[in-house]
Design a protein that fits this description.
By secondary structure, the protein is mostly beta strands. About 0% of the residues lie in helices and about 60% in strands. The protein has one domain: Immunoglobulins (Immunoglobulin-like, Sandwich), CATH 2.60.40.10. Strand 3 and strand 4 form a beta hairpin. About 25% of the residues are buried.
Length: about 130
Amino acid sequence: MKKDLPENRVEDIAVAVVLENATPESKSWNVYLVNLKDEPIETVLVSSKGYGTKDGEEVKTSILRHSIGNVGAKDYAKIEAIDEQVFGLTNEYWLSYYIGGNIYDKKFIFLPESILESNFIRIPVLNKVGVMIG
């Protein structure tokens, strides 16, 4: 039963959309998992998808699944490249990982139009600018 499962709270883990390069012609963006913990996380899996309305029509992107492996303490891992054409959609990242044999999972959701320069911060550990959800 669900009530019998332990409540493993995800803390000190973040997902960040980072502006890698910008030229007058284009911008390059990547999505990162940031481990702010003092311990590694293991067997990291992330699924990503986008959904919402664009030009009055319902839009869904493909669901992508990423096997990241292990991410060290105070470290990061690239999840995927992201195209700014999907910034107008809800972008969802569902993370699961293990610590000491216990499983943890959490959804990180970037709402439409939340990936804006006005929301940029310096991402800890990664030391780049972007939008982070923790």
